[in-house]
């Protein structure tokens, strides 16, 4: 298993692409080793089999240029924070050794998103406990330096906004890799979520433009950090961007 600079923890395949795809691409383009750990396979979705979703995730992984992608294989629609799930995720963190972890916001109204955020938060803490590492086996204790959150359904005042204009088209392509979750390309509803009738790409673009405007750019992604960020950090200093 490769070690990473950044690990994105997302409830379902496509969550990371929709909410943090631009940030992921900017990090990869800056030379960071980035991975995604999907908590479920999205098997409870009305359209698309587990195998379909796996294939779509592989395609999106290629577009994003990820170093690693894995799945915790928790049941879709029933993600719970348990002793077992916390320890499994903590072991992944010790093995992958990321400096930065990105996940959903803790107040996200989607039950799986909220549970995945809590799971990430608790596993982040447990990954640094030396005695737990001895009990459960595996790599030595190592806690990521920073735990931060991307925005899905819950709006928050961000710590910073990532300028994603240079990678906007590739983010869009990564979202489109999840064809089963969108209407068919040969229909007038191309880009709309098949279940909710919402044009996902339009919604993502509207949000990205709103945050881009706040930083004097075209497209942006909001990130909320749990701790103060030092921009002397070589993994994060580029995020500050030029003053406008």
TrEMBL record:
Record bears the keyword Manganese: no
One GO molecular-function entry: 4-oxalmesaconate hydratase activity
Keywords recorded for this protein, A-Z: Lyase
GO biological process assignments: bacillithiol biosynthetic process
Protein EC: 4.2.1.83
UniProt-listed InterPro entries: Bacillithiol_biosynth_BshB1, GlcNAc_PI_deacetylase-related, LmbE-like_dom_sf
Pfam families: PIG-L
Principal EC category: lyase
Keyword Glycosyltransferase in annotation: no
SUPFAM superfamilies (UniProt xref): LmbE-like
Protein name: 4-oxalmesaconate hydratase
Organism for this UniProt entry: Saltatorellus ferox
Gene: galB
